[in-house]
Amino acid sequence: MERLIGNSSSYKEEHHQPHSSAERRDPDPKWLEDIEAEIRQLKLENSLLRSRVEQLEDAINKPSRSERKDTINEALHYIKEKASRKRKNTRPLSVLKKSWALNTTFCPTVVKRLVGHTDGVWDVSCYNDGSRNFIGTASADRTARIWADGKLLHVYQGHAGSVNSVQIHPTVDHAGTPLVCTGSGDCTAHLWVFSEDRQTQPDSSDDEKFHDAQADASSLPAETPNKSVSETKMIFEGHKGPVSSVHWVTKTGEKLVTGSWDGTAALWDTERSGLLYKLSGHEGRVTHVAAHDTKPLLITCATDAYRVWDYRQQPPSEIFQDHRADSITSGLFAEGDKIVVGSDRVVKVWDLRHAHSPFAVVRLNTGANKISMSSRGILAIPLDTRYIQLHALNGDRICRFPRDEGHQKMVTSTAWANEQTVVTSGFDGKVLEWSIQLGGGGNPS
To answer: Do 166 and 181 touch, CB atoms closer than 8 A?
Structure first.
């Protein structure tokens, strides 16, 4: 046993003695290079295999010939359907353009050109005293002017900002002088009178004396300075934004309604020069206001909607509103319970008794501005494209004014002087009086 143990110890000593530093050797460099080359080869093969797998997956997922055919057919059907919708939507405009050439019997022609404003004219209104047609104009040159028979009778310079709206009252004041109201960018409305003997303006209706509004002011006819302070009867203050529109409420002239960019309209007492009520509710700028000739109704138009008010109640109550409309540029009351509203590319006629859908729709290819209506129910629609169009109240087209002798910039407003005469204003500074041969009796169609 001892011998075996001894032999075992000697065995361990023989086989487990540590090697000297001379006996240890570094790995063979050639062997390491072979391993690295093999790893690189495996990576390359792996990359090739991945590429092949992706190609196979693409081949599996690739649609068949029938599937590709179905996809192409669906795309062609979509393109045809879209083209059909486009033709359907543009067809009314093409029909409109073709139809205007047929309406040559009305022959709108310019008979007078009212010269004097040195900037764009925003508004025009007319008043007939039984013997003459008075025309009021409001301009961005901060003046309002009164004309008759092509002559400039009066220049009002009482506002500190652009004059945006003008209305001549159909009655006269105690001195026998017509009343005029104007709204301005200075956030006020002025009530004033004019006197013919203060102005001795030469006739400017002759075409040879016509000047473009962009001409130098020295080339325009001379004007006698106007004492605006002595002419101003009342100043209505209270709006926090520019006054965009004014309109007489009653035939006797004791009430006035104004609209402003501050989003409100106001009802005023012209006898006491006081505010009666503020008409609030619009979320956008009020662009136009109007009153019914015989009923206690007001319409306020704004960039968000238009509203109809009954001012018999205190305060006036809202009886109708339409938020489905685009930005409304103008509105007016027509025969019966109908109202006409103009907006971007469309004019609609509504019957308040059946307000679920419009009574008539006039499609346009541009925006409409301040619309006017004759006593026979003919709408004169001024457009941004320098045209003026006439439509019957049922939407039928009547005629389009020629543009070559008309305005050179957008037409801002229209007003009927009588059944055969329309006055228009434009941002080119021009005020034009047109003669129209509409014929006798009934609405043309």
So the answer is: yes
- What are the start-end ranges of the E strands in 249-395? 255-260, 265-269, 274-279, 286-291, 297-302, 306-310, 317-322, 328-333, 338-351, 360-367, 372-373, 378-382, 388-392
Residue 84 CB burial class (10 angstroms; 0-12, 13-18, ≥19): exposed
Whether 443 contacts 334, CB under 8 Å: no
- Enter the tokens of residue 311: 């001012």
| Global pTM exceeds 0.90 | no
Q: Which two tokens stand for residue 64?
A: 């068949």
Residue 24 above 60 pLDDT? no
Identify the CA nearest to 165 among candidates 195, 147, 186.
186
Distances (CA, A) of 94 to 87, 100, 215, 367: 10, 10, 37, 17
Burial class from Cβ neighbours inside 10 Å (0-12, 13-18, 19+) for residue 198 reads middle
Centroid of chain to Cα 295:
29
Q: How far apart are CA 58 and CA 420, in angstroms?
A: 77
In the chain, the amino acid numbered 42 is L
Predicted confidence (pLDDT) per residue in 387-433, tens digit: 999 999 999 999 999 888 899 999 999 999 988 999 999 999 999 99
